[in-house]
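Troubleshooting: if your tokenizer reports a length mismatch, compare your output against this known-good record of 340 residues.
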Amino acid sequence: MTADNQNQAWKRFATWAVFSSVALVLTLVGAMYLIDPYDTGRSPFSREPDLRGQRELNATASVGRNPRYQAMVIGNSTISQISPSRLTELTGMPFGQLAVPGAQIPEQMAVLEWFMKHHDGTAKALVMALSRDVWCDSDPTQPGNNSFPFWRIGDSTAEYLAGLISMSSAKQAGRRLGILPASRAKSGPDGYWDYEPLYATLFTDEPRRRELLFKRMNDRHALGEPSFPGVRVLGERLAALPADLPIVLVVPPVFTARQPQAGTPRHRAEQACRQRLIELAAGRPNTALVDWWDDRPELKKTDAFIDQIHYRHPIARTMEQDIAAALLDIRKRAGSLTLR
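Known-good structure output:
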């Protein structure tokens, strides 16, 4: 074989290899698009939301678009213990749960957008957790350290298709098809997940748990910027929602040792941010603030918390009562205005 013939053969082989690889990738992406591993509803085969074998973060798209859940809990792990089924029992509103571990402001806003996109005109209520460490002390443009898949619930088809090319998506496709077993830490149909089992090892190490509980923060460090840009972003987004949509803003509790000493820079900054949230809730119609900011006797009990920000079931049950009462009060006041 001459050198020219060899070059031509290599060119044909290289061309075949490139086109074969592209065809294979396109075939895989097409198959993943049709399978819709995260139940986003984009597949032409999608019908009703069908949550199968998915853990909490992977369940976000499915639960958020489900027409069955017309009221939603949104936030990070500091609100995940709030049971949507109990809120449903207490209020009569069909609640789902969209808490995302480690979610900062951009992630929570993206989840809110996804829910509202799929419940335009049908949303009955929102419950939003306002963790002080997030909304008072974070840059509202910076996502958290956890790799949140914005592409799954965003508007870009190109980003969605690119995101499907991963081993985790392939595994989730296997779960959707029943080829692989469901995740052991899967969400319930309404998106609820209980974080207590994740801390089983910590419960066996009581000295370490107490060390985490009683570690003091530097009270000379003031939270965030004095203007609290996160609160401003929240206010702008809530103002754009339908005025008749009931919204309950919830400030989750923290263990007593995380509370700053009165009169310190951190205490003054926290109270200033708290006041901004009070004003935000008061300035929007059909809005209430469930305020668990300050210390309470039940927040001093070591068996009520796992660490300083993750509370256990007894606290959650009391908070559910407060949230339900706030929603029912909003509904009562709205009914009174209608009658007039």
